From TrEMBL, chain A:
InterPro entries: Ribonucl_Kappa (IPR056552), RNase_K (IPR026770). The chain crosses the membrane at residues 12-33, 64-88. It is found in: Membrane. The lineage of its organism: Eukaryota, Metazoa, Chordata, Craniata, Vertebrata. Keywords: Membrane, Transmembrane, Transmembrane helix. This is Ribonuclease kappa-B. Belongs to the RNase K family.
Automatic annotation (TrEMBL), chain B:
Its main location: membrane. The keyword Transmembrane helix applies. InterPro entries: V-ATPase_116kDa_su, V-type_ATPase_116kDa_su_euka. Essential component of the vacuolar proton pump (V-ATPase), a multimeric enzyme that catalyzes the translocation of protons across the membranes. Required for assembly and activity of the V-ATPase. It comes from the Eukaryota. One of its GO terms (biological process) is vacuolar acidification. This is V-type proton ATPase subunit a. The chain crosses the membrane at residues 400-424, 445-463, 539-557, 569-592, 635-660, 770-793.
Amino acid sequence: MPSLLFCGPKMAACGIVISIWGVIMLGMLGIFFSTKSAILIEDVPFTEEDIRNDKNPPGNIYGLYTQVGINCFIAAGIYVAVGAVSLCQVRLNKRQEYMVT
Amino acid sequence: MVFRSEEMCLAQLFLQSGSEYDCISELGELGLVEFRDLNPSVSSFQRRFVSEIKRCEEMERILGYLLREIQKTHIAVPEEDESPLAPPPRQVLEIMEQLQRLEMELSEVARNKEKLQRNLLELTEYTHMLKITRTFIHSRSRYEEFPTMETDSVSGCTGMQRLGAKLGFVSGLIQRVKVEAFERMLWRVCKGYTILSYAEVDENLTDLDTGEISKSVVFLISFWGDQIGQKVQKICDCYHCHLYPHPENDEERADVLDSLRTRIQDLNNVLHRTEEYLRQVLQKASESAFSWVVQVKKMKAIYHILNLCSFDVTNKCLIAEVWCPVSDLANLRGALEEGARKGDATVPSFVNRIPSSDTPPTLLRTNKFTSGFQSIVEAYGVGDYREVSPAPYTIITFPFLFAVMFGDLGHGIVMSFFALWMVLTEKQQKKKRSSNEIWETFFSGRYIILMMGIFSIYTGLIYNDCFSKSLNIFGSAWSVKAMFTNQQWTNKTLQTNSLLTLDPNVTGVFTGPYPFGIDPIWNLAVNRLSFLNSYKMKMSVVIGVIHMSFGVVLSIFNHLHFQQKFNVYLLFLPELLFLLCLFGYLVFMIVYKWLAFGARDSSQAPSILIHFINMFVMQGKDLAPLYPGQTGLQIFLIVIAMLSVPVMLLGKPLYLYWLYRGGKGLRRRRGYERVRRVSEDDTSAAASYEDDDEDEGLDEMPGREALPKEFDFGDVLLYQSIHTIEFCLGCISNTASYLRLWALSLAHAQLSEVLWGMVMRLGLRMTTRVGVVFLVPVFGLFAVLTVSILLVMEGLSAFLHALRLHWVEFQNKFYHGTGLKFLPFDFSLLPSVFEQDGLL
């Protein structure tokens, strides 16, 4: 099987750091979007029609909030996968270093 | 961390001749004292221990060669945890012998190896040549028949009779790059009487002289005539071709090829064995290489120190003068006893403390936490002897001022984690000892970064700023609903206005201040910056005045310690009064306005700036006062501030002049008291600190009838007037300088907002299915930009400005920083030449 190693030790370490940061931050963002915090209103992609043509205000906006929240959670999940891949790379790098010296 | 630097004394060490090496070795291990040079006029070649140092350098040269060879073969040099002691003189010869033997062996083996490799290259080339010329001959043999050839004894190359003329062959190898020129030269010189055929060699051969790997070309020249033959030979020489004898026929060629093959195989074997032997030798040497390096380094250092000492008349005893901290004198004695014991001395070496009028060096003891802060203070200037050190306060004020400029919760958390990782893995990092200077700088400042990060978390909570978003922890105190319930706003107001103002005077809108920090609703407000600017500017001025007053107060301790009590009344008091009457009053006005005016009467709140300016120009009778009695108080403060300027300007020079002239009989008694106090005290302290124009009264030692020192009134007055102008104008400019706390925090907040708005928002605003995956790289980009721009760039910027505030605005109120640092003789502090070359 060809070597699964495709990045060096520093790149893999960066990968782990960004993944951990991503998981935590996107997770918290997801929570804050799900609880519909007002501070994040600018980040929700609502348009004028959403506000005007709302049968049940502010249902549309709330729906968009939950949507973005779910997006954040999915992205956090992807970062978990990226983190796992980076961890494997780190382990492979360590093993290779150990074998060479 | 200490308040002021340690008390030092000058001591004389009397080292007995036999044991001086061991005593100095002990002192080097402990790193207690700094040696002074007792032979400054002697050049380094005339000193006593020059031959020993030359021997050490010879050993270092051999060690350098050894380490380079070890590095070439990629053998790791194992390092021991404890460094070995300096070897006694009898062991030195052993080490020297071993090293010399190793050097000889290594150079011999290297030479042999080179010879063998040259040989191998020749044989390989010959093989290639034979193989390739075979194809030439065979391709030509389709057209021609070659009758028997005879060796021509004159030209040495095989020739054959053909058409009445002798056909000669010259074959060999030439470098690829030279082939065209070679061909052209042959054509021009030999005028067509030669035929050159050539083909490239597949294998890349290393040219041993230059070490390059280049392509070679095998050529075969056939020529008619002797003269041509000689010319061809000369041309080949000129182009540095490697010529090999051309075989006459195929059988000969096959024989030669066979023999070459066996010879190459043998050579390869021998080479392999040689390399293994070399590796073995180097492996064995590498085991003790580290300890040899350390031992030689220590030995050389000891001999350097011995060169600084002087021999006494009887030549039995070595005298050394050292600066030693008074608290370490007992350790010093212990070290000398230990050294004497090791050197089997009959007479013990001893210490004798001597008085001195030189200024001792400054020593401040630090641990791994405080050393970072001490080094940033010392980067400005090492403190004078026994001066108050600003370092202990810097541990708190520096991270705090950094955090005021950096205040962001999220960034603070990332910075703290980074610093925490460095601190927790510090043992492994210290062992690694990377050669990257930038990393070394960050690593040595890890505790500073940790403190900065923790303080940034605190200020981030106060500014309520986390990656440019506010956190609503306690629930906002502002209520929009209340504007509707009180009939201030209706649906029509919403539809006709794009911006609306919440009125805190309406009941229910503003329910009191937010418990900790800035209310999160400000994050949504359009006039956020006007509110925050006012707050941050006032806060900067308040912090600045407090910091500067603290600096002025610290100067009292210096004045009292150096026995200049008059400075307290003539310098410190006017300085403090000037600062507090003007800028302290400004701080008072700021705080008063915050407390006295609320939401109800905020429209009548006067501008502090106008009042402050009016205070100076003594106008503004028509302005509504902030509080009753304001004009009176302001006039009083201005008068005090104005009066303190001439006191600062003329007080000290006049007082010193009065002292010098004989203060109406009071001076004799005073002077006597002072002299007595001085001789009781540490003699080096009082006499050494002051400038020469300040100390006339004190310099009257036992010879009281002697003339006092020169007192130049003009000089003192000039110095004092410069100090006064600097202080007074500096007060204003330094207070304004603290406004950078506001400026940088504003810049940081805005950068953070822009980064979120331009990067993260793009990812969050996508709601399509693809948008989810888009968020992943967008967040990665956001993280990278946050670290590089906001953490590294802004962090360095805030670090620099906080440092400047300390160095200039804080320290010029009390700190002189013109001292010398105490550099003890310590083996662990000596740099290693090999480490610098990257060999160890």
